[in-house]
Amino acid sequence: MLQAENLACRRGERVVFAGLSFKVEAGAAVLLTGANGAGKSTLLRLLAGLLAPEEGRLLWEGADAFADRAAHAGRLRYLSHADALKPALTARENLGFFARLWGGDAGAALDQLGLGPLAELPARVLSSGQKRRLALARLALAPAAIWLLDEPTVGLDAASVERLGGLLARHRAAGGMVLAATHLPLPLPSARELRL
Amino acid sequence: MRGFGALLGREMRLAIRHPADSLAAVLFFVLVAALFPFGIGPAPEALARLAPGALLAAGLLAALLPLDRLFGADAEDGTLDQLLLSGMGAAVVALAKALAHWLVTGLPLLVATPVAGAMLNLATEAWPAAMAALGLATAFLSLLGTAGAALTLGARRGGVLLPLLVLPLAIPAVIFGAAGIEAAAAGLEARPYLLLLGALVAAALPLAPLAAGAALRVE
């Protein structure tokens, strides 16, 4: 279980959010909603451990999640706005790098997102939707307990959203949790909404 | 260590896909070395006297060229976030980046050293010492530069700030490196100077990645 206690975050002089508390159980999904600039992406970065909270704590199974940063990083997958792709590398090479880090099979992950036929193309010739799918394919590599997704469906066509839905459902059925910031409807049945 | 190897392999593959970056550093190095004869005149003795220092300065400036993009590109496309979350530790990421920078920029400079040395009328018996000195000095700069690049990441005008931060710290490498080449050109032993250079590299090897890692995490 992931539990946030009284989290607050400040960027420069501005308090982005404060007094934020929530719980996410295994298999649960939370939709982060709110206007632009409400702090959805900031909250995801904070949960990933890329930003330090101004105050408050994040607990994993009752213990401080940031006490061991490497362990915390090991149990999560973070998908930001940026796709983290190198234009000069092929789709398979881009994904293969993460497969070497986390384990898993790049070819199978590409197939799950319908990118099999594009595997040998350099990422620079992919469309923005295809790049997004290639970034999403990282989720299919190896299991991790927490998925932090920032606008995962931007630029995706209906068929790809459906594929992502299958991926999310399998992840949750295996006890994984999902926190997703979005403005678009996501294929996450019975997700709780957290308004920032 | 699996992450270290994966990251290093990816950096090498990217460098092979973009050979222009390495080529630019080598050409810059040769061109700077070629400017000295024009400025000083064709007197061989004067050139040979200047050659050790000129080689070191040109080499360090050339190795400095690609440093400001060392973390910049990864920060912009989101790769840096993924690397910091890869569980391999920010210092290990920095060490892999520094080694990749040396392999991609420092090592090609060694191949061009005889060309630059010939233009500066460096005695041929000093060429091996010149290559060793440049190899160690660029390794030192790669390590320092990685820390500098991590510190200036996200700063406005980081590209200008970086040389101002790194070059003063590289002065010892120029002193020992040039002294070593000079000794070899005069038929003396270059080894003591190269060992001192090696000591600099050995000191920077753990310290610079740790500093870079701390700077990357703060952001």
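The mean pLDDT of chain B is 92.
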